[in-house]
Every structure is written in structure tokens, then in C-alpha cells.
Amino acid sequence: MSGADEDAVAEDDAGAEDGVGADGVVGVDGDANADGDGATPERDDRARSTRREPVVVVVEPETPGNVGTIARAMKNFGLSDLKLVDPPELTEDGEAYGFAGHAREDVLPNTDEVTFDEVVANYHTVGTTAITGEDDRSHERFPFKTPAELRESLKAVDAPTAIVFGREGRGLNNEELSRLDEVCSIPADDDYPVLNLGQAATVLLYELRELTVDETQLPDTAVTRAPEGDVERFHEFFGDFLAATGQREHVREKNALLMRRLLGRAHPTEREVHSLLGTFRKANAKLEHAEHLAAKYDEPVYPRE
Question: Where are the beta strands (DSSP E) in 101-186?
Fold first, then answer.
């Protein structure tokens, strides 16, 4: 066995760590010219509810664990239809089911075995590769989209879509890529742009989540700005505080304006403003008491510098 062959075996034995290598990312159907102009949240929600769910295809996967990882990523991001071209044996007590998490309950057991020709014939496809062409002299790998660009173009697509991943060690070859409709590549460090197959699937499906996930586990983070009356009351309190500090008038005016600009950018909530009001109310009361004591005992209000 040559040194190069030994290196290739070591890569495969490592769990396809360099999987997406020359080519292993995805193929998804999309309209390269769709620009998504005029989109609104309501329109996006309606489009998502009627858009066909993309299928995920893995061509000749070598490691069952990677199949399980992809199934788990699919479940994480709202996909359920996994198709495999010439896969290894997947047993319930093997790596695939061990890596699949809850996807072992539905995505993995319902996997279909298909041929590459069937995928090309029945879906609009986008093949993904770590190695792209630099210009249009390489039509198999150029032009290409990043996952974020692909997401935007797919928003206008209403067609059966297949996300096609290549082999762990070699990805999709030029002949296969030439039969797919679009090319997608994940930007990565130029010194080592090759992602593990499962990692590449997770990154890409995450970027496409706006097309496949109706609701996430994250709470609504919309912030309601405090009523303007409360904000203005705070500025009054802050003005009294500045006056009590003994600063010169032009300094107080500058600081008051800086505070107004700061709150204008921050859009504080009602609770935040009320907390600040309470703090400055107490501070102003203490400063007023200090002035009273200073006058009573004929002491300077402010410490001598």
C-alpha cells in the first residue's frame, strides 16, 4: 500500500473527519435568479407553510455514524425525508442509530434507498463542494452560492428539492456535479476548508432553517420601549442629579445630551427605566440632604479638590 493510500485509509477510519473533502456538501433545488424582493414576515410564513419540504440525499456514504449525524441534524432543523445512494448497512444497534439521537425514531427508520439517476430525474438539485472553481472556466464547480445565498434563492422556489451530499473521502465528482442544477459551498479557512460530512450537513441545514422550521425553542425577544413620559421623567431626574453635582452649566448640558442620545439608541424597557428612576430618585434625595447639612453646619457642599 502506498503512503497516499495509507493516508486515505486513516482519514476514513477517523470517522470521515475530512469527509466533505473535495465535494461533500449538499445539493438543493433552487432558482439562482430569485431575489426575494417584496418579502414580508407574513408572506414568508405563508410561503413556508406551503413550500415542499426538501429531501436530503447522501451519495455512497461510507460511515454509518455520519448517516446518523445527518439524520439528527435533519430533525434539529425540521426535515424528515432522508434518501441514501448505495449506503452501508444500518443496524439498530450500530453507529447510525447511536449518532441519530431522537431521529432514530422517525428519520432513520424511514430512510429510502435510491439511485443517483432517480434523484436527478425527480428533483431540482444543488450539489455542494468544498472545492470550487475560481471562474467560469470550471463549469462543474462554478458559479456557486454560499449557504446563506442559497437560502435566499430558495425562498422563491416551489419545486421538489434535493439536498445532495457526497462521499466522505471524495465528495461528489465532476461528472456528478455537472448533472446537478446548482452548486453550494461553505466558506471556511483557506488552509483547511474541508468539513466532516456530518458537520457540513449541520451547517447547511442550519442556514436553511428559515425555510424548514416554523418555530424554534427560543422565546420571543421583541422589546417594547418604555413610554416616552417615563423616559422624559428620567431625563428630568438625571438633570436634577447633574445640577446637584456642581458641574459647570456647559458640562451639565453636554452630559444631559449624551444621556439622551444613549437612551435613544438603547430603547430601554419600562422596567429598565423604572429601575433607573428609583436609583436617581434616591441619589437626588441624598444629595439634597447633603446640601441641607452643609448649609446647617456651614460646610462646603462639595469636597475641596
Answer: 112-114, 124-128, 161-165, 182-184
What average pLDDT does the segment 19-41 reach? 42
Give the three cell numbers for residue 13: 477510519
Cα gap 15→239, rounded to integer Å? 65
Compute the radius of gyration of the chain from its Cα atoms: 30
**Which amino acid does the sequence have at 140?**
E
Q: What is the dihedral of CA 23, 28, 29, 33, to 10 degrees?
A: -70
pTM: 0.62
Q: Check: CB of residue 70 under 8 Å from CB of residue 176.
A: no
Strand partners, 55: 162
Residue 128 φ then ψ, to 5°: -115, 145
As assigned by CATH, the class of the 15-212 domain is alpha beta
* Cα–Cα distance, 305 to 303 (Å, whole number): 6
Beginning with the edge strand found earlier in the chain, give each strand of the sheet holding 182-184 in spatial order.
Answer: 112-114, 82-85, 55-59, 161-165, 124-128, 182-184
**Do 126 and 163 meet the contact criterion of CB atoms below 8 Å apart?**
yes
Q: List the one residue out of 165, 55, 161, 167 whose CA is nearest residue 111.
A: 55
Measured CA to CA, the distance from residue 305 to residue 299 in angstroms comes to 14
**What tens digit of pLDDT does each residue of 160-198 get?**
889 899 998 888 888 998 898 888 888 788 888 888 899
Tell me: the pLDDT tens digits for 277-300?
Answer: 999 999 999 888 888 887 888 777
CA angle 44, 103, 172 (to 5 degrees): 75
- Domain boundary assignment for the chain: 15-212, 228-296
